[in-house]
Amino acid sequence: MCEVRLTGISKRYEGAKGGRATIERLDLTFPSGELVVMIGPSGCGKSTTLRIVAGLEEPTTGSVWIDGKDVTALPPAQRDLAMVFQSYALYPHMTVFENLAFALRIRRAPEAEITERVTTVAEALGLSALLERRPKALSGGQRQRVAIGRAVVRKPKVFLFDEPLSNLDAKLRGEMRREIARIHKDAGTTSLYVTHDQIEAMTLADRIVVLRDGDVQQIGSPLEIYQRPANRFVAGFFGTPTMNFLSAAVEGAGGGRKARGLGFAVPVPAPAELGGEVVLGIRPEDVSLEPGGDRVALPGAVTLREVLGAEVVLHVTSPAGDVTVRAPAQTPARAGDAVTVYLDPSALHWFDAQSQVRAA
Amino acid sequence: MSVRRPKLPIVVGVHALLAIATMAVLYPVMLVVKKAFEPGRQFALSPSPIPKRVTLEHFRALLSARGSHGELAFLQHTISSLAVAIATTVVGIALSCTAAYALSRFRFPGRKAALTSFLVVQMFPASLLMIPLYVLLHELGLLNSLSGLVLVYSTTAIPFCVWTLKGYFDSLPRELFEAARVDGAGPIRIFWTIVLPLARPGIAVTALFSFMTAWNEFILASTFLTDEGKYTLPVMLKSSVGQFSADWGQFAAGALLTSLPVMALFYVVQKYLVGGLTAGAVKG
């Protein structure tokens, strides 16, 4: 059990444009035993942060703490962490056995212990039959298993995953995702996981850290992030298809306040301190073609119908902007049809138009 | 997918051109081969590359010739040449591998300057270096010694080897080094267990080149070696063709025998050659 803490971490690359920092004064705590996913668009600093924890990059300022110890000045070898790379980074001239045993040999573990640990890990990962093979004789999925095995066999304080599944096809990715979840559940080792795939983040994480341009946008459980995104960026980043955003202006005062956009008006929830321009976010699954309850109508026309099998996704243009709707597969609406979409007011996310921050 | 076949006249033309070019390259070599197996001391005036009579007499004479102390001269010179070439290769590769690793993987003050100076010294012709090298060897008391020659050859081979090997090391994926570092390996262990095994093709090619350079070198060897007993093969061959008497038959036989080890080495490392050369060429 071991906590990882970053305090005041900045990273500035020499010669970068205007010396702009990739990461600026980042404070993050990765609680002991949790699997924390760092996610964000490319260039947001998530991989750099991971590499700083690993000791492969030096932070320009700030400190890295592992298990209550300041390790900022220590080389990777002395931090007792294991890392899984996107490119697998298997040693091509060694057999699978030697790849798995490499770190143990460096630690001068007794030969009997090496054999035992490698065999156990190989069995758990279904690599037993491949121990004498070289990496080039393995498939992509098998290579990834070896890369994970190489990390697991060491029983390190912390696991670091740097987009470990990006090079795999969709089916294998799902399989390996479950594998990693199982390993984490069994070992309970603190894990830092970097990805740009929101499904990996949602399914694996105990906690998600959303990064953008080196700044933390939100930290929370997958459900918190999905249900209460802290700002418009996080709201748009999670969810497929992405959340719909409609511009509106708050009118009136007291209990009767309404937010009016082009073609619709919704009542403002009671406690919200809202005024002026707002952006309303609503997920495609909260938009319906059926009226009902206090749903708010918005007229529009279908521009595209995407059939996904179990459901269809309708793209509707309306005076307020484009709206995506997730609807049951039997929905009759076709491209060109005029429809009215109904927004569930209780499912609306309210953002301030200026600051983009969540208001209600 | 189908590749359009070129028209017959073009095929014939291209092959004729290639055949002529090949002949132009091979003809002088064939004349030497012919001389080696043809009786007589003089180069015949006939342009035909095929000897009229074949004899092994030149080889016999060359191999049985005795030096001033009664030793087998050709064997003696072969041993000198081998010693110099092998020592040059070993010293050169050992030093340039470690230097190239440092220059490829670490960032330190003076790194750029070192790389540039390695490149700049490459640009001086050997004849220009001859005089300062002569003075240096004289001061070190290494004139007329094989170890002096090894020193000179190594220092001239190292810049080239460093650049080639650095290019090769640069092409090894960065993640391998990072994985090894995270796994707990230090720089020296990474060098031994990761870099050296993976760079074998690059090292083989570089070694071949430094061996070849030392094995074939003539100007420096003939300048620094004065004792006939220490001559390397190229110097010995040249000395067999004097101003007043020239045994071209023995010269040709000796030249053929001298080129055998290099040919054998080329054959052994040929599978590395293409990959090693391109790796060195496109990177660094």
User: Looking at this structure, what is the CATH superfamily of the largest domain in chain B?
Assistant: MetI-like
Query: What is the tally of beta strands of chain B?
Result: 0
Our count of helices of chain B gives 12
Uncertain segments of chain A: none
Distance between the termini of chain B: 37 Å
Strand portion of chain A: 25-35%
Helix content estimate of chain A: 10-25%
State the domain count of chain B: 2
Number of helices of chain A: 8
Full CATH superfamily name of the largest domain in chain A? P-loop containing nucleotide triphosphate hydrolases
CATH structural architecture of the largest domain in chain B: Orthogonal Bundle
How would you describe the shape of chain A? Answer: elongated
Order of helices and strands of chain B: HHHHHHHHHHHH
Q: How helix-rich are the residues of chain B, as a percent range?
A: over 70%
Strand content of chain B: under 5%
Strand order of the largest sheet of chain A: 6-7-8-3-9-10
Descriptive notes:
The complex is a heterodimer of chains A (360) and B (284). Chain A is an alpha+beta fold and 360 residues long. Chain A has two domains: 4-235, Rossmann fold (3-Layer(aba) Sandwich); 240-352, Nucleic acid-binding proteins (OB fold (Dihydrolipoamide Acetyltransferase, E2P), Beta Barrel), CATH 2.40.50. Chain A has eight helices and 20 strands. In chain A, the strands form four sheets. A six-stranded mixed sheet of chain A has the order 6-7-8-3-9-10, sandwiched between helices. A five-stranded antiparallel sheet of chain A has the order 13-12-11-14-20. A five-stranded antiparallel sheet of chain A has the order 15-19-16-17-18, with no helix packed on it. Chain B has 284 residues and is mainly α. Chain B has two domains: 8-55, no CATH class; 61-282, MetI-like (MetI-like fold). Helices cover 73% and strands 0% of the residues of chain B. Chain B contains twelve helices and no strands. Chain B is globular, with a radius of gyration of 23 Å. Chain A binds chain B through residues 54-56, 75-77, 81-83, 85-87, 89-93, 102-103, 106-107, 150, 154, 160, and chain B through 173, 175-176, 178-186, 189, 193-194, 197-198.
